[in-house]
Amino acid sequence: MNPCVIPKLSEDHDGDERKLSMHKRFVQQAKTDESEILFIGDSIVEQLQFSNLWIEKISALHCVNFGIGGDRVENVLWRIQNGELDFNVKLKAVVLFVGTNNTDCTPHEIFEGILEIIKEIKHRLGSVFIILPTLLPRGQYPNTYRERNDHVNTFLIDKFSNEANADEVTDNVYVVEIHHNIVQNDQTISHHIMHDYLHLTNSAYTKIFGPVYDKLCELLHK
């Protein structure tokens, strides 16, 4: 059985239950918040809210950030099945970014898990716009995790950007390819882009997630 499609609470590796506490806070926030756009996913989403891009541009779109560091596909699936989509107002868009932490799963398992999340979002929110930024490369030097993320991206692009594969799942889902121009010609990633070779620097958020902001603006003004 594919572990990515089995909803699961985030592992409490540190024993302080902070991830569960964050989930409970998000559930309460959803009930009272008047935001129209939800960003949900892992630490790359979580840290986006501290970037200049978020503060100066994204936040003006009435966005809320439900990113949790270390979350995997199955963790986000569990969270949205347990209250994090129960907003008091109708959401206009969901930006979903997750998968890089599923290091023990195959690319197709991760892809299937993301599809399951999309189906759940559609089931609970109806005709909301869903934006899927592609997974980012990781590690200073070439490695199997980079390859895995790249394969996941290939699946996502083929599914959601190829009209031949259009169906009820792909409707109103938009892949934004943000994984380009990160790896340099020598196949390394600079610490000026990813300070720890996984998470983006402040300036890199503007460059890499800028197209996500642009896509949101385009969809919201349709």
Commentary on this structure:
The chain contains 7 helices and 5 strands; from the N terminus they run H-E-H-H-E-H-E-H-E-H-E-H. The protein is 41% helix and 11% strand. Helix 4 (73-81) packs parallel to helix 5 (107-125) and helix 5 packs across helix 6. Helix 5 links the parallel strand 3 (93-97) and strand 4. The longest helix is centred in the middle third of the chain and has 19 residues, at 107-125. By secondary structure, the chain is an alpha/beta fold.
The helical percent reads 40-55%
Q: Radius of gyration in whole Å, from Cα?
A: 16 Å
Report the sheet-strand fraction: 5-15%
Major β-sheet strand ordering:
2-1-3-4-5
List segments where confidence is low: pLDDT < 50 over at least 5 consecutive residues.
none
Structural class by SSE content: alpha/beta
Task: Provide the fold topology.
Blueprint (H helix, E strand, L loop, with lengths): L17 H15 L4 E5 L1 H6 L3 H5 L6 E5 L5 H9 L11 E5 L9 H19 L3 E5 L10 H17 L12 E4 L25 H19 L2
Parallel strand pairs: 1-2, 1-3, 3-4, 4-5
Helix pairs in contact: 4-5, 5-6
Summarize this structure briefly.
Residues 39-205 form the SGNH hydrolase-type esterase domain. The chain has 222 residues and is α/β, with parallel strands linked by helices.
